[in-house]
Write a structure and sequence with these properties.
Blueprint: E1 25-31, H1 35-45, E2 55-61, H2 66-76, E3 83-88, H3 96-106, E4 111-114, E5 120-121, H4 125-131, E6 138-146, H5 155-160, E7 173-176, H6 177-183, H7 196-206, E8 210-220, H8 230-233, H9 238-247, H10 249-256, H11 262-280, H12 283-305, H13 312-340
Parallel strand pairs: 1-2, 1-4, 2-3, 6-8
Antiparallel strand pairs: 4-7, 5-8, 6-7
Helix pairs in contact: 1-2, 9-10, 9-13, 11-12, 11-13, 12-13
Length: 345
């Protein structure tokens, strides 16, 4: 992909004058004990079409892992451009928000690019992303995420593919360093890789920063293998949904979820009704409650199986997890509401 006509140079924005160098953009990559995936990511980042003297790679190790350190230092000691730097979080599992803050604050470039250690940026990624900042009014940009999935994906694979429609996802986004300073960077209360990117996006929008989409800045995000029942464990992320809602209620309803998942609450209420009916030996309460709960689970399961794999193991997983997800999700949503003292349903 050619970004500019032959002989025409892009109007690059000024670099951060606090770091006198030729570095235009710093790529921040948080990583946690995945040196093999990180190696693949660094290989792609070192093959960018952007002049290697104009960017640096800042790897922040959130696992304080010897194998990761050796991997990064091996690349850095090769002595070839781009410059590769190795930083660490203050403690293992500090979280991606902490790692990214460490990375961008130490960066030398006036533009900060974010991607993840399991991603594969295409060669034109940096050049396309930085081109958006030729417009001095632009504070941030997001590129296109490609998630390859099979024709008959699992429910987990299809959900992961939702990243393709996620604006400002940290797998593929760019910000001016001055804009990050203006809003304080990532909120480190988001200790998991969930909603910290939306929180930053919303903070910038509320501060009237201009964010744009750059479709030519492409990152491939392969789906990692997942253990059985991953969808149940993911319900804990509702804690961070509550925090995001507390901070940005209007934007949360506009961008994330227009209304509470009432079908989850109806499912949980029916389950509680069935338990109460069993306890007090009331068929009038037990019977209708079980009918409502069974219908709710069946409808939810059918929805998740639509256009997904019909392998026996996957169908069995969908049946079991469809029964468990609604009450587990309600638990974590209410726990988040209590923790962050917000009316979040």
């Amino acid at each position: 992909m050619k970004m500019y006509p032959t002989g025409e140079e892009p109007a690059w924005p000024a670099i951060n004058t606090k770091h006198p160098s030729d570095i235009l953009v710093s790529v921040v990559v948080p990583t946690y004990r995945r040196p093999e995936l990180l190696r693949r990511c660094l290989t792609e980042l070192c093959a960018q079409t952007l002049d290697r003297t104009r960017y640096e790679l800042v790897v922040v190790d959130d696992g304080l892992d010897d194998a990761t350190r050796r991997e990064v230092l091996g690349w850095a000691e090769a002595g070839t451009r781009p410059i590769i730097r190795y930083l660490t979080s203050p403690a293992p599992r500090s979280g991606p928000a902490v790692a990214r803050n460490i990375g961008w604050r130490a960066a030398r470039g006036g533009i900060i690019a974010f991607t993840d250690d399991d991603c594969r940026p295409l060669p034109e990624w940096l050049e396309a992303g930085c081109a958006a900042f030729a417009d001095s009014a632009v504070s941030g940009a997001w590129g296109r995420i490609v998630v390859p999935i099979p024709d008959e994906p699992t429910d987990y694979e299809r959900n992961t593919a939702g990243l393709e429609d996620a604006p400002c996802a940290t797998a593929n986004c760019f910000y001016r360093k001055t804009a990050l300073h203006a809003v304080g960077g990532f909120d480190e209360r988001f200790t998991a890789a969930w909603q910290e990117d939306s929180d930053l996006q919303f903070a910038l929008l509320e501060a009237r920063h201009q964010l744009v989409e750059v479709p030519d800045a492409v990152v491939v995000h392969p789906v990692r293998p997942a253990s059985w029942g991953i969808s149940i464990r993911q319900q804990r992320n509702n804690l961070f949904n509550a925090l995001l809602f507390k901070k940005h209620p209007a934007l949360y309803r506009l961008w994330i979820q227009a209304s509470p998942p009432w079908h989850y609450y109806a499912n949980a209420a029916a389950l509680l009704g069935a338990a109460a009916g069993w306890t007090v030996e009331s068929l009038w309460l037990l019977g209708p409650s079980l009918m409502v709960w069974t219908a709710s689970v069946g409808q939810f399961c059918a929805k998740r199986l639509k256009s997904t794999s019909r392998r026996a193991a996957h169908v069995a997983e969908m049946v079991v997890t469809s029964a468990l997800i609604p009450p587990v999700a309600v638990y974590w949503r209410l726990r988040g509401a209590i923790k962050y003292r917000v009316a979040f349903l």
